[in-house]
Write a structure and sequence with these properties.
Maf protein; Alpha-Beta Plaits
Length: 416
């Protein structure tokens, strides 16, 4: 059975722009990966009446609602009370919820503040949703034909509870089998229209639907199928899609470009040194977000000024005077310089103009040069990226990672 699902997020910070609503996006991604589609998403502020109205409205039209936010210990955390009033339940102290909260503090050897008892005040007959990462115990309640799941607004807590408890309960509601399965391929280097063009005249197997999404600068190719043969259909569809999109597919599902590059570097036993200018350390940040990055990342230098390029990377002063810091020559000298200084297998460098100022007729904003010095390969190339400063920097960092991925794929092919 396909459930009619909605998400309701609460909090003034979401309404006034202080904080982005990442919970709705995360819930949609997780549910989509398990075969569920959201039909509606709504946000309201910390107002008891508005929360009550939204809950009643959604419960009258949807089969299941996931609510996040407003389960904390402070006065502006109103969700539990609003839920009780909206559906004529009494708010009562839940002994099991209180025990879980106290246990959370006991395990961390912290004193529990009296205000935290408020988090155990839940609508009567509510079913608990354990929170292994915080004090905001979640709960589930049924109202008419609708199941409501209440989770904290803290993203990491919400995501853990969604995966561990809410998804299994949704599967039970839908008859034990998700209505469909989804597989996502991640693509870099092709625009969404160009990705779609590659399937023209090369349709997917019958029974598989094709969808697209964008997580800049990546395109998401979504393969969807239902029924008992869904897994086999998706295996065939993925193989077909990879053939049409080669060599631009870098991962599936929750895989990241940086994560795959890190894994490939580790598997190959190769070390990397980075010299970044316009990206300001973005590549090194993406790579060091990966646990165990010390196995492959030897060092990273943010050589923003000409003096830094000369002092740390030994870029010749006459080269900088002749070609400028944003040039093929400088990028290549940076790559060789950081590789030699680190004694690493690979040296990779980025230099460019991210804007919004600093461009010229010859080198407009968005001009970026990448260079790589590696065993058996020396490469340098210029690009012209478009968009805001943030987008140019992200595109440059992603392209650098893609260079590494392509190089490492070639290394793997030589080994095998």
């Amino acid at each position: 059975m396909s459930l009619n699902l909605a998400v309701l997020t609460t909090g003034d910070e979401l309404i006034n722009g202080e904080m982005a609503d990442t919970n709705t996006m995360r819930i949609a991604q997780v549910l989509g990966g398990h075969g569920y589609l959201l039909r509606e998403a709504r946000s309201v502020g910390d107002d008891e009446g508005e929360i009550m109205q939204a809950l009643r409205d959604l419960a009258g039209r949807r089969q299941a609602i996931i609510v996040t936010g407003g389960l904390g210990p402070t006065e502006d955390d109103l969700t539990a009370r609003a839920a009780a009033k909206a559906f004529d339940r009494r708010l009562a102290l839940n002994d099991e919820a209180l025990r879980q909260i106290r246990e959370f503090f006991r395990q961390r050897r912290q004193e529990m503040h009296p205000r935290n008892e408020k988090q155990a005040l839940l609508p009567q007959k509510a079913q608990l949703i354990p929170n292994p990462l915080g004090t905001a115990v979640g709960f589930q309640m049924r109202c008419g034909n609708c199941e409501l799941f209440f989770l904290p607004g803290v993203p990491v807590e919400m995501a853990a509870m969604l995966e561990a408890t809410v998804l299994p309960r949704l599967d039970a509601l839908s008859g034990g089998v998700p209505p469909r399965q989804e597989r996502i391929l991640k693509v870099f280097g092709l625009s969404e229209p160009k990705v779609e063009e590659r399937f023209n005249g090369h349709p997917l197997p019958t029974g598989v639907c094709l969808g697209f999404g964008v997580e800049y600068p990546f395109v998401l190719v979504k393969l969807r199928a239902g029924g008992p043969e869904a897994e086999d259909l998706l295996d065939k569809a993925e193989l077909h899609a990879r053939r049409q999109l080669a060599p631009y597919v870098f991962g599936t599902g929750q895989e990241t470009l940086a994560g795959n590059v890190g894994r490939m570097l580790t598997d190959a036993g190769l070390t990397l040194a980075l010299a970044e200018s316009c990206t300001g350390g973005m590549v090194s940040q993406l790579l060091t977000d990966i646990p165990g990055a010390s196995a492959f990342l030897e060092r990273a230098a943010v050589t923003y000024s000409n003096r830094a390029k000369q002092d740390w990377l030994l870029v010749p002063a006459d080269l900088l005077a002749r070609e400028g810091a944003v040039s093929q020559g400088c990028a290549l000298a940076m790559a060789h310089g950081v590789r030699e200084a680190a004694g690493s297998d690979i040296g990779l460098a980025i230099t460019g103009i991210a804007g919004p100022t600093g461009g010229s007729a010859d080198k407009p904003v968005g001009t970026v040069f990448l260079a790589m010095a590696a065993p058996g390969e020396e490469k340098v190339q210029g690009y012209r990226f478009n968009g805001s400063r943030d987008k140019i920097r992200l595109m440059a960092a992603s392209m650098a990672l893609e260079w590494l991925r392509r190089y490492l794929c070639a290394v793997q092919e030589e080994v095998h």
